[in-house]
Specification:
Blueprint: E1 2-7, E2 12-21, E3 26-34, E4 40-45, E5 55-57, E6 60-66, E7 70-82, H1 91-96, E8 100-111, E9 116-118, E10 134-148, E11 151-165, E12 175-182, E13 188-196, E14 199-208, E15 213-215, E16 218-226, E17 231-240, E18 245-263, E19 269-283, E20 288-300, E21 303-304
Antiparallel strand pairs: 1-2, 1-11, 2-3, 3-4, 4-7, 5-6, 6-7, 7-8, 8-10, 9-10, 10-11, 12-13, 12-20, 13-14, 14-15, 16-17, 17-18, 18-19, 19-20, 20-21
């Protein structure tokens, strides 16, 4: 399960993620907070997980109050405070060279839009390329309190939550682009582009207009890049449904690059980068919203493979 949020009043956003890999005996816990002063608080852990009875590990817990209507997120634990979140491209350096502080978070997430997704009747993934046998997403509101060190924040914002299940290999997609956006309770969207190494992949998403959730028949995206190795800094996207075309520009406010490594059966190291950008979105009519732009790329010779999109 994954939950993101942004509250423009204090300028605070972030995401919480907890994955159970019960058959492997471990989990994956991530907390990332984009703080008003420009710093990013981040922590990752692989706690012991041997059952799928709960999402509760490494100081993080998700509670379902009413299915699809209300859920609660809690975290009590440390984060490393990054003045320069791009340092996380070298996790050893980032964790060893920056201060830590304690975080206490209590957020309640409530339904804004209907659910999108589910589990297909026929497998959508080829053997060895499993990423999410089933998956759904939902636009939500987020309210509560977050304390970072000695500083406390009241949160009243919006975000998106999702839930995936089945095998997960971060090396399965060649690259993907995942955009989430909220413009208050009456408008939001999600756009998804997943590229395969040897095929066209998929494009999709949804647009929520406060009354109806329409599925995308097409999703187009173009990115601008900066730095070395390049990370995305600007986005132009079009989401096409049966009744409308939504054009949006995104400006990345802050970005943290995360890394996953795996050794393949031949002994070669595979490196995957997941760049998490807190993003300000602007529609053609001038409305401004916020959300995450998540870019996953396999890294080849130190460069992301999806620079063309």
């Amino acid at each position: 399960m994954y939950f993101n949020f942004y509250d423009p009043d204090p300028g605070l956003g972030g995401f919480f993620r907890l994955g159970n890999r019960a058959n492997e005996g471990v989990g994956e816990m991530t907390v990332c907070l984009y703080l008003p002063d420009g710093r990013v608080g981040f922590m990752f852990a692989r706690p012991a997980v041997t059952t799928n009875d709960a999402f509760d590990a490494a100081g993080m817990r998700f509670e379902v109050v009413t299915p699809f209507e209300e859920l609660r997120v809690a975290y009590d634990g440390p984060v490393v405070l990054l003045d320069d979140p791009l340092q996380m491209s070298d996790p050893r350096r980032a964790f060893g060279g920056n201060p830590r502080t304690q975080v206490s978070a209590r957020l309640t997430y409530r339904r804004v839009s209907p659910m999108f997704g589910g589990e297909p009747e026929e497998p959508a993934e080829r053997p060895g390329e499993e990423f999410a046998r089933g998956h759904y997403e939902q636009l939500v509101s987020a309210t509560g309190q977050i304390t970072v060190g000695e500083e406390g924040f009241q949160v009243s914002g919006f975000g998106l939550r999702d839930h995936s299940w089945g095998p997960r290999s971060w090396q399965a997609p060649w690259y993907y682009r995942w955009l989430t956006a909220n413009f208050g309770p009456d408008f939001g969207f999600m756009g998804s582009r997943v590229a395969r190494r040897d095929g066209p992949g998929s494009r999709g998403g949804f647009v929520w207009d406060g009354t109806t959730l329409e599925l995308c028949t097409e999703f187009r995206i173009r990115s601008s890049w900066e730095g070395q190795p390049p990370v995305h800094a600007g986005i132009e996207a079009e989401l096409v449904t049966g009744t409308k075309t939504v054009r949006v520009r995104g400006s990345v406010l802050r970005l943290i690059p995360l890394r996953n490594r795996r050794v393949d059966p031949a002994g070669a190291e595979l490196v995957t980068r997941i760049s998490e950008g807190m993003t300000r979105w602007t529609l053609e009519d001038g409305r401004v919203g916020y959300g995450l732009s998540e870019y996953l790329d396999q890294m080849v010779d130190g460069a992301p493979v999806g620079l063309a999109e």
